[in-house]
């Protein structure tokens, strides 16, 4: 996973950069991948990533947006959340596990098999990967919502 192998888009959606979009993102992932064993982990991860995008980046500014893409790849699934730009701040796991805030990326780190980010112009795309069960059939129809 994570390299240039075949990638099939299961679903993608663009949501406004507002707090209520966190629930929309959760429903999107649950509807796009209802039968995946890792769906509960994916739902929690998308919640954290969208909340972070709205709270810590220009996506939370008036007119901001957050893009969510769920793909199937060789060996698993990849969830990507793109924001409108973080003014140079990169996603990271906070060192202090007892901190009042900053637990979101710790949750992502615990639930995803791998995670990371890449810069795309002004945007930051945070990705998280989840393994597929052995022998899983990926022959499902794509799901998309233009947002």
From TrEMBL:
Residues 22-128 form the Histidine kinase/HSP90-like ATPase domain. GO terms for molecular function: ATP binding. It comes from the Bacteria. InterPro entries: Anti-sigma-factor_SerPK, HATPase_C_sf, HATPase_dom. SUPFAM superfamilies: ATPase domain of HSP90 chaperone/DNA topoisomerase II/histidine kinase. This is ATP-binding protein. It comes from Actinomadura meridiana. Keywords: ATP-binding, Kinase, Nucleotide-binding, Serine/threonine-protein kinase, Transferase. Coiled coil: none annotated. The keyword Ribonucleoprotein does not apply. The lineage of its organism: Bacteria, Bacillati, Actinomycetota, Actinomycetes, Streptosporangiales.
């Amino acid at each position: 996973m994570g390299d240039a192998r075949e990638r099939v888009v299961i679903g993608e959606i663009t949501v406004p950069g507002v707090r209520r979009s966190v629930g929309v993102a959760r429903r999107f992932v649950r509807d796009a991948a209802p039968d995946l064993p890792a769906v509960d982990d994916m739902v929690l991860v998308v919640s954290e990533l969208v909340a972070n995008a709205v709270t810590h980046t220009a996506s939370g500014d008036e007119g901001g947006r957050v893009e969510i893409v769920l793909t199937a790849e060789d060996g698993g699934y990849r969830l990507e959340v793109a924001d409108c730009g973080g003014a140079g701040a990169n996603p990271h796991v906070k060192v202090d596990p007892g901190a009042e805030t900053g637990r979101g990326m710790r949750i992502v780190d615990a639930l995803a098999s791998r995670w990371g980010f890449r810069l795309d112009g002004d945007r930051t795309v945070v990705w998280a990967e989840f393994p597929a069960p052995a022998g899983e059939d990926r022959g499902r129809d794509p799901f998309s919502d233009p947002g």
